[in-house]
Design brief:
Radius of gyration: 23 Å
Shape: globular
Number of strands: 3
Structural class: mainly alpha
Helix content: over 70%
Strand content: under 5%
Number of domains: 2
């Protein structure tokens, strides 16, 4: 009992308490307020935009409530996640990767089927998309691998076999859900990080050649008919006039009708008259552009690219290799989400179900 009491008093000694408080204070002083403010502003605009997107749709009000719950959860978890030393994420990256891969496998067999895809997994009454967490796990595991195996002269194709396998496992599981858009994001994350850490010229040529070789194989043997039609509608929307072509056309009408200053908040006719399908997910940018016009769209784009640029700055100024690669990977993930989602809304990219972060 005496030993227990001494250990207990030592653990809660004033010195230990002051040391913990001092560490928290140092972390808070170094808190990156720029990223925090940018994220909170984007989330705030996103919540307002989502409210407008689902207004008048009683069956979709639950989506706004869910978004609000996630917003509150993010606010609560932001500081604790920041206070954890990021090397903890480096140490636990293999576990995070393995766990998300298992969840992806479970989703294939036991996931909730929605619109022909099995993307949502329900565990204990909690429903989530493992593929969203898989992207972050992939960034962390790749950052850990490349940090532990530096190569100043550039990586060869042989040296990329293991990280390539790390990417292909979750990508294949997601592709067969099927979720072409998120699978594409995983591939782009890998390619972005690979370019960032450096590749030999022969490796770059081999990768380009491999992509050119596998593209026709993927087109004829892997892609489903509706996925092919979504790609073709980028060139000619009349290929699928009642599906992806209709979505692209209505999105273009919504964006164009917003003109310079927009129609005003909650005044978007394409949204309110139900001409624009999936305006709460794939086409939230169209809702924003219609109601806030070119001014609002450019402002949101500026906020996104400022956040991405700040992430790249963090990557370039990081004290170690893992932090640098992880920061770059997360910035690249955000970049590709923004580019693909807005490209979909503008009719410049196929409708592949990639969401706009903080908005969809």
């Amino acid at each position: 009992m005496g030993i227990f009491q001494r250990n207990n008093s030592s653990f809660y000694s004033p010195f230990a308490e002051r040391r913990f408080q001092s560490r928290v204070e140092r972390r808070m002083v170094r808190f990156d307020w720029t990223i925090a403010v940018l994220v909170l502003v984007l989330m705030g605009i996103g919540i307002m935009n989502l409210y407008s997107a689902v207004a008048g749709y009683p069956e979709r009000q639950v989506l706004f409530s869910a978004q609000m719950r996630w917003f509150v959860a993010c606010m609560i978890l932001m500081v604790p996640i920041y206070l954890i030393n990021y090397h903890f994420y480096e140490a636990t990256a293999p576990w995070a990767y393995a766990m998300t891969s298992v969840f992806l496998l479970l989703t294939l067999f036991f996931g909730r089927v929605l619109h022909g895809s099995s993307r949502w997994l329900n565990i204990g009454g909690f429903s989530f998309q493992p593929s969203e967490f898989s992207k972050i796990a992939l960034v962390l595991i790749l950052a850990r691998y490349f940090a532990a195996n530096p190569k100043h002269g550039g990586y060869t194709l042989r040296e990329l076999k293991f990280p390539l396998t790390l990417m292909l496992v979750p990508t294949a599981l997601i592709f067969f859900e099927p979720d072409l858009g998120t699978a594409m994001i995983h591939v782009l994350i890998f390619l972005s990080i690979a370019v960032f850490v450096g590749l030999e010229k022969k490796t770059v040529a081999a990768v380009v050649g491999f992509v050119l070789l596998i593209a026709p194989i993927g087109w004829f043997f892997l892609l489903k008919d509706y996925q092919k039609s979504r790609i073709l509608t980028v060139i000619d929307p009349s290929v699928d006039p009642q599906g992806a072509g209709y979505q692209i056309t209505q999105s273009a009408v919504a964006i164009g009708s917003g003109k310079f200053f927009g129609k005003g908040y909650l005044q978007g006719t394409q949204t309110k008259l139900r001409f624009l399908p999936e305006q709460h997910t794939d086409f939230v940018f169209s809702v924003l552009s219609e109601e806030w016009g070119l001014i609002g769209a450019v402002l949101v784009l500026a906020l996104f690219f400022l956040l991405i640029a700040w992430g790249l700055s963090v990557a370039s100024n990081s004290k170690d290799r893992f932090g640098s690669i992880a920061a770059f990977g997360l910035a690249a993930m955000l970049f590709w989400h923004v580019i693909i989602n807005i490209g979909m809304a503008l009719g410049l990219m196929p409708v592949v179900g990639v969401i706009l972060p903080f908005f969809s």
